[in-house]
Write a structure and sequence with these properties.
heterodimer; A: 311 residues; Fumarate Reductase Cytochrome B subunit; two-stranded antiparallel ribbon; B: 2% strand
Chain lengths: 311, 354
């Protein structure tokens, strides 16, 4: 692109010239010229790559680019990959589901002590006392997740943008109605979703509601001594009831609703790895989030058209 | 003369037959021999530790007891000389009392349970203060346990146990159970009602019926029974509410640190909550809860202790439960309907329908 050669590159080419001249002295000039061209091309390519992967971030980018190329060769129908969830967001999700799994398997035996598995789930930790300690550890993780997410929402640009996009709008209600009509065959068109469909928005706010109720009532039960200093006992009973009932609701929502959407849904079975790599294919993007895809494409063409005059 | 003598012999022989095969004439003679000394009211021995051991026993000693027809040497079978060269050993009841005995004793293996119990093991370890059979059942005056006059009858057993467990007996006697029993309410438990009869274990032994995690079950044998509790106007839901509470669940999973019935209501000194001395009297609740929850204050007593969220009387707790119940049902119905509609749509599209 830059026509004017820099002195470093000139010195490099001189070196290549000298080395080849020494080795190909006894060869035919036309043959020597061919070899020279080949070597020059190879060396320049190497140098170019070295430059590209100079920093760690660049190296990662390079690896990603190469993987992407490979993937595109294999599944060309998927098209380009877009980053749907950034690393921070994926980390939050992992912390959350780890803590929720711990909380469910240590908490549900308390709600259903006579269930067959309960005995084994408690014995898994070596007794009820240990089980309660694991439950509190899980609670600590969930509280950390909540705090982390609040900071993420406030401080990170991506977080702020996603939060705004997650706020329910009248379009979500229309989408829901249209989607049901689509399922029933009353309306052939599938609703066109933006970055977050009404299903994902429901999931997000359900977790919000669940975290507030569970952490709030859980802290009351955890520090019952302090709570009883200021509140009568029935407040603690209410907290206990809320904790127990909301746990049931949250577990059912995860096991039935969330598992269907990300595991048992025929499009995704046996599960999507999006929680791990955060990537979404162009194909899926067009299918599930057409409005976001169009937005990205529009932004891109705008950028490209903006770049042209600079050239 | 000869005829008279013969008649006397026949009479004696008939008398022996009437007494039964296992009570021959010589046994009767031995009773007479024994009472030569033991029949004197002042017949006693001063032991090395200064205690006086009353050795008075007559033919009437066994009267009214289950061993009425036995004689001295049936039990004291190691006595063969008078005066005794060796001090006669303590009577070993298991000589007759085992399953399969031919002596006419009840066919029971109760003594096996005794040997594993806290008393039996103490004896085996050489504790001379630990009780043997006769210490509870009585020596010559053994009666059936059903017989109210028996030392181990429902009304007398507390006093019998109290001969050694004096402080506990005093606590029990003034407790609701002790008072009720002394008023003649036979449903009230005595010591054996909770601790068992022969298989009494220390409360730290997991086999014990009053082990921390077994207490609730033990109390619920009566307190969960509507037929018993309705007589006294006591609610039976306390058992279920405890079992559903955190304390109850943790106890069910084997936690020994959480509260069981006795932790709050007392062990031997259980009193009704209206009693100012009761551990669960509103005034005493902070101290009672404070045993485990340091700094407990009167707030612990505000609100019902045994709460049932399914009952309207629970107030705000009931309404919270109802709110979540309908929230859960509503949400899940909507979500499941959405899932099924989705699958229905997919099937339809797979079939090629529009």
């Amino acid at each position: 692109m830059n026509e004017k050669k820099d002195p470093k590159q000139e010195a490099l080419e001189g070196e290549i010239e000298a080395a080849i001249a020494g080795e190909t002295a006894d060869l035919d000039p036309s043959e020597a010229e061919k070899i020279r061209e080949k070597v020059r091309a190879r060396v320049l390519e190497e140098v170019e790559r070295e430059k590209r992967i100079r920093t760690a971030a660049e190296r990662r980018e390079e690896a990603r680019r190469r993987r992407e190329e490979k993937r595109r060769e294999k599944h060309h129908e998927e098209g380009e990959m877009f980053e749907r969830f950034n690393r921070n967001f994926r980390f939050q999700h992992i912390v959350m589901f780890t803590s929720v799994i711990l909380l469910v398997i240590t908490g549900m035996p308390i709600k259903f002590p006579n269930f067959v598995l309960s005995r084994y789930l408690v014995a898994l930790w070596g007794g009820f006392n240990n089980s309660t300690i694991v439950h509190r550890f899980g609670a600590g993780m969930l509280i950390y997740f909540m705090v982390h997410h609040l900071f993420y929402t406030v401080l990170s640009r991506r977080g702020r943008r996603d939060f705004v996009l997650l706020i329910p709008t009248p379009k979500d209600a229309r989408d829901a109605v249209q989607n049901v009509r689509h399922f029933m065959g009353k309306n052939a068109e599938k609703p066109r979703f933006g970055r977050f469909s009404y299903i994902e928005k429901f999931d997000y706010w359900a977790v919000y509601w669940g975290c507030v109720i569970m952490i709030g009532s859980g802290l009351f039960l955890w520090f019952e001594g302090i709570v009883l200093k200021y509140f009568p006992k029935y407040v603690l009973d209410v907290a206990h009831e809320m904790h127990s009932d909301e746990a049931m609701l949250a577990t059912l929502a995860i096991v039935i609703w969330h598992f269907y959407n990300v595991h048992f849904n025929p499009d995704r079975f046996p599960g999507t790895l999006m929680w791990w790599h955060g990537q979404i294919s162009e194909h899926e993007m067009k299918e599930e989030h057409p409005l976001e895809y169009e937005e990205i494409m529009a932004k891109r063409s705008k950028q490209e058209s903006a770049e042209v005059p600079n050239r | 003369m000869r005829g008279k003598c013969f008649a006397a012999w026949i009479f004696l022989a008939l008398g022996a037959c009437a007494q039964g095969l296992f009570s021959p004439a010589e046994a009767r003679i031995s009773l007479e021999k024994c009472t030569l000394c033991h029949g004197k009211p002042e017949f006693r021995k001063i032991l090395v530790d200064g205690q006086i051991r009353d050795l008075f026993a007559t033919g009437d000693s066994l009267k009214g007891s289950v061993h009425e027809k036995k004689t001295c040497v049936d039990c004291h079978f190691d006595v063969s000389e008078i005066p005794h060269r060796q001090r006669p050993k303590r009577v070993v009841c298991t000589h007759c009392h085992y399953k399969g005995n031919a002596e006419g004793a009840p066919q029971s293996d109760a003594y096996l349970e005794y040997f594993g119990s806290v008393h039996g093991t103490a004896i085996a370890k050489g504790n001379t203060k630990a009780p043997l059979c006769q210490d509870c059942h009585g020596d010559h005056t053994i009666r059936k346990a059903k017989d109210l006059a028996s030392a181990v009858s429902h009304v007398n057993v507390a006093e019998t146990c109290g001969r050694c467990h004096i402080e506990i007996y005093a606590q029990y006697k003034t407790s609701i159970h002790g008072v009720a029993l002394s008023k003649g309410i036979m449903d009230a438990p005595s010591c054996t009602g909770c601790h068992g009869e022969h298989k009494i274990y220390g409360h730290l032994n997991p086999k014990s019926s009053v082990y921390a995690t077994h207490v609730a079950e033990q109390c619920s044998t009566c307190h969960a029974s509507v037929t018993i509790m309705s007589k006294f106007g006591i609610e039976t839901e306390q058992v279920a509410t405890y079992k559903n509470s955190f304390h109850g669940v943790a106890s069910g999973f084997g936690s020994r640190t959480v509260a069981n019935c006795a932790s709050c209501h007392g062990i031997h000194d259980i009193r009704p909550p209206e009693d100012p001395l009761s551990m669960v009297n509103a005034k005493n609740v902070p101290a009672t809860c404070g045993k485990c929850h340091p700094g407990a204050n009167p707030n612990f007593a505000v609100g019902k202790m045994h709460v049932d969220s399914h009952k309207k009387e629970s107030g705000i707790i009931y309404y919270t439960a109802q709110f979540f119940k309908y929230l859960t049902i509503g949400t899940m119905l909507a979500l499941i309907a959405h899932i099924f509609l989705d699958m229905y749509g997919r099937t339809r599209r797979l079939r090629g329908e529009k």
